[in-house]
């Protein structure tokens, strides 16, 4: 479908269309018949896009009910995103996107695009902005979460971080590595509706803290970097969210040994002080300490500029897409090079304890 002018087509695209056969088409003016034909074409296109999510009949009705609200002022960001999907341009970066953000496959217009939202220890005693006010409550429970994390030593749950190779050559039998030095292991608590209940059962305090975080995105894990580890530059999968790094084990000396680069900004990590950034921007991480490991709690929250209604629609569609992808991946078998198979293969591996607890 050719790109349509957003202003001219917007009302047509989001209006609930009545195509009842009770009306006599011959009584309509040529303009009304043209408008009806255009509306029917648009609704057919919307139905085709929804088919990509493999929704049930009930699920499609729920999605259409959400889409009928796209004209509302508090649906503006998703409205533009949906128009881009209808025009087949959702993977084309908006003109306003920064160069360091263009590697992200899902960018939404109308969202504030700042690489770093909160710089941890560099903020001193300043109060976080209102949309991040929950940070202080999370940081207050760091001693409990750190004790819980350290109690995991000697237990299963940590696994090597791997992703699908997708033609890449930096990997092993488990999948693609995201490091060019050192080791990266993870302990998943929440990830794309996969079953990590056993991991969560060992971490009730951390899970309780995460449950209290407003607008959780549903993605959380402990991330362990061995000494002399470099996580290579990459972009996250979407701009719909912000990422929080909360260091629970982090060497203080030398200063800057544990750090992030997000776009053109560098942030040093300090134990117990959260950093919040937009991981749709190109970013990378280092633990340059010669002998001490670094473990952070990583979790995501929905972007503060998205309204509650926008979050509901995006969350609904995201859950549907994950279920669809899981079915496709399961059909490909356990040895396939896809996201879910790679995670499960890595789950069966036993990392070297020294790469986690150094």
Automatic annotation (TrEMBL):
Aspartyl/asparaginy/proline hydroxylase domain: residues covered: 140-304
InterPro entries: Asp/Arg/Pro-Hydrxlase, Asp/Asn_beta-hydroxylase, IPNS-like_sf
SUPFAM superfamilies per record: Clavaminate synthase-like
Keyword set includes Oxidoreductase: yes
Superkingdom of origin: Eukaryota
Keywords assigned by UniProt, alphabetized: Dioxygenase, Oxidoreductase
Pfam families: Asp_Arg_Hydrox
PANTHER family according to UniProt: ASPARTATE BETA-HYDROXYLASE DOMAIN CONTAINING 2, ASPARTATE BETA-HYDROXYLASE DOMAIN-CONTAINING PROTEIN 2
Entry's family note: Belongs to the aspartyl/asparaginyl beta-hydroxylase family.
The protein's name in its UniProt record: Peptide-aspartate beta-dioxygenase
């Amino acid at each position: 479908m050719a790109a349509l002018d957003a202003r001219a087509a917007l009302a047509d695209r989001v209006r609930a269309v009545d195509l009842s056969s009770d009306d006599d088409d011959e009584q309509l003016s040529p303009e009304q018949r043209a408008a009806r034909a255009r509306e029917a074409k648009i609704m057919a296109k919307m139905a085709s896009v929804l088919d990509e999510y493999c929704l049930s009949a009930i699920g499609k009705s729920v999605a259409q009910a959400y889409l009928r609200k796209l004209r509302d002022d508090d649906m503006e960001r998703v409205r533009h995103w949906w128009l881009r999907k209808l025009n087949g341009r959702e993977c084309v970066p908006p003109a306003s996107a920064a160069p360091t953000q263009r590697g992200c496959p899902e960018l939404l217009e109308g969202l504030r695009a700042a690489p770093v939202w909160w710089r941890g220890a560099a903020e001193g005693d300043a109060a976080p902005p209102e949309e991040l006010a929950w940070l202080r409550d999370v940081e207050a429970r760091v001693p409990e979460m750190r004790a819980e994390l350290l109690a995991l030593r000697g237990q299963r749950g940590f696994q090597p971080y791997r992703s699908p190779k997708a033609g890449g050559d930096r990997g092993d039998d488990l999948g693609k590595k995201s490091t060019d030095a050192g080791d990266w292991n993870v302990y998943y608590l929440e990830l794309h509706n996969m079953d990590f209940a056993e991991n969560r059962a060992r971490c009730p305090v951390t899970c309780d803290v995460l449950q209290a975080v407003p607008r959780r995105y549903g993605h959380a894990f402990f991330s362990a970097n061995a000494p002399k580890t470099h996580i290579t530059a990459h972009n996250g999968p979407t701009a719909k969210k912000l990422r929080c790094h909360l260091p629970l084990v982090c060497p203080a000396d030398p200063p800057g040994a544990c750090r992030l680069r997000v776009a053109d900004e560098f942030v040093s990590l300090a134990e117990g002080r959260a950093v919040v950034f937009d991981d749709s921007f190109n970013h990378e991480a280092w633990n340059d300490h010669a002998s001490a490991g670094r473990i952070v709690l990583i979790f995501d929250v929905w972007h503060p500029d998205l309204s509650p209604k926008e979050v509901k629609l995006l969350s609904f569609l995201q859950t549907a897409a994950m279920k669809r992808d899981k079915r496709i991946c399961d059909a490909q078998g356990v040895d396939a090079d896809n996201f879910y198979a790679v995670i499960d293969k890595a789950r069966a591996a036993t990392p070297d304890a020294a790469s986690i607890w150094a």
